[in-house]
Amino acid sequence: MSISTPGGEQHRPGLVKVGGKPAAGAKPGTKTTTGGGKTPPKAGGPRKPITPIKVNQGRNWGPIAMFAAVGLLAVGIIGWGAWAAFKPGGAGYDWETRAGSIDGITHVTTELKSNHTYNQEKYEQSPPVGGTHSYVWQQCMGNVYDAPIPNEHAVHSLEHGAVWVTYRADLPADQVAKLAAKVEGKEMMLMSPVANLDKPISLQAWSYQLKVDDASDSRIDDFIGALRVNATQEAGATCSGGNTATGDKPLTEEQAAALAQQQQG
Amino acid sequence: MTDVGNSPRFSTRGLALSVALALLVGLAIGFGVTRLAAPGTPADDSAAAGFARDMTSHHAQAVAMGMIAAKKGYAHEVRTIGEDIALTQQGQIGIMGQWLRDWGLNLNSAAKPMAWMPDGDAALNGNLMPGMATPQEMTALENAAGKDVDRLFLEMMIKHHLGGVHMVDAVLTRTDDPDVLWLAKGMKARQTLEISEMQQLQATLAKR
């Protein structure tokens, strides 16, 4: 017994199909183009006349060359594959080693929470480098904020892969301008003053921090170069949208709703 | 074939030597072919890598503009093209980032933006690449309402696309990486089309 599917052709045996495969019902006697009608021209062809056995006539180089060529090809493919499989690199860039080699950098290796809240949070580090944060991120499209921003929003930006440049309010204006030049208009960067900073300048990426005294310290570029984008906890996340207001308290749920409403126009 | 085995000169030692030699030559070929193929990977200071990094930043701003237009464009055409541009360019950011990962390169560079382009420095406005909006312009778009959203968005995005096409032209003559050429050509074709589409839309909306 055969299992058949409800095919249209089987219900219309009178139909003659032109071209392509013959209908399932019309098999017997039907000549197909792909069937075994033709015989391959080689199979039945005349064999080469058997040459008389050569006795000790030297090596037959033809087959040897052929085997050698095939062997070389095979080994070459294996060699290529082996190299491709074991060659260094190919797994991205080792930014962690580069970050770790920056003199004076701090790396928090204990777990930093990533959950969202509308509450004010207390953070282990100052400024924070990770932990529970606001639902809303601080816009980090190279924004240079001239007043402090809520930690809860900035931490969300760090989660997206931004580097947050912070400075103490008494940092001279020319130093602030130097820092701003590294930030302004460069996405995945944001900058703001922070009250009660223990050093003139502090840089934050998710789980990383570097504190320096001077805006011309070359480690600032090292920190940004190693960690911007790379330290993301959410590959592919953006810095646009989000909160652009300054202040010391995160947006409440009502304020966040109002912001979303305003962004909808 | 059989007469090889019958040959009195044929020996096991000879076979072993040939196989060993074949193995060595084969490995050398495998290694060599790979090394010849490997230079296809762009270097850290190549135009391809510079383009991947800088066009990512350039695109990120287009995504920001596009999202604003998608959310609060006044005309439905503006909302549609904003959504299209934002989603397309965010997808392309992902493609370009994966190139850099595949090439074993940093997503970042200490180099200034546009360093891979001739006169790249002259084309810069701070960190802003050709066609990019200033922070003040972005704030104005974010705070705009009604028909002002459409007007500002179309002006800014046309300018942004023109600058983007300029950068694409620069990479097209400076790389032979097939992936980069493929995406760059696609960007140029699409953005050129969108420029005239947006110009037409400006004319249409002026009469509405």
Task: Give a brief description.
The complex is a heterodimer of chains A (265) and B (208). Chain A is α/β, with parallel strands linked by helices and 265 residues long. Helix content of chain A is 28%, strand content 12%.
Can you walk me through this structure?
The complex is a heterodimer of chains A (265) and B (208). Chain A contains 6 helices and 8 strands; from the N terminus they run ααββββαβαβββαα. Chain A is of the alpha/beta class. Chain A has a 6-stranded mixed beta sheet. The radius of gyration of chain A is 36 Å and the shape is elongated. The relative contact order of chain A is 0.13. About 7% of the residues of chain A have low confidence. In chain B, helix 7 runs antiparallel to helix 8. Chain B folds into 2 domains: 36 residues; 166 residues, Ferritin, CATH 1.20.1260. Chain B is built from 8 helices and no strands. In chain B, 74% of the residues lie in helices and 0% in strands. Chains A and B meet through helix 1, strand 4 and helix 5 of A and helix 2, helix 3, helix 4 and helix 6 of B.
Please outline the helices and strands.
The complex is a heterodimer of chains A (265) and B (208).
Chain A: H1 61-86, H2 95-100, E1 106-107, E2 116-117, E3 133-134, E4 141-144, H3 151-160, E5 163-168, H4 173-183, E6 189-194, E7 201-205, E8 208-212, H5 219-227, H6 253-264
Parallel strand pairs in A: 2-3, 4-6, 5-6
Antiparallel strand pairs in A: 1-8, 5-7, 7-8
Chain B: H1 2-6, H2 12-37, H3 47-72, H4 76-102, H5 120-123, H6 135-143, H7 147-172, H8 178-207
Helix pairs in contact in B: 3-4, 3-7, 4-8, 6-7, 7-8
Which stretches of chain B are low in confidence, meaning pLDDT under 50 for 5 or more residues running?
Answer: none
Q: What strand line-up does the widest sheet of chain A have?
A: 1-8-7-5-6-4
CATH H-level homologous superfamily name of the largest domain in chain B: Ferritin, core subunit, four-helix bundle
- The second-level CATH architecture of the largest domain in chain B is Up-down Bundle
Could you give the distance between the termini of chain B? Answer: 87 Å
Please, how many helices of chain A? 6
CATH class of the largest domain in chain B: Mainly Alpha
- State the oligomer: heterodimer
What is the count of β-strands of chain A? 8
What pattern of helices and strands is seen along the backbone of chain B?
HHHHHHHH
The helix fraction of chain A, in percent, is: 25-40%
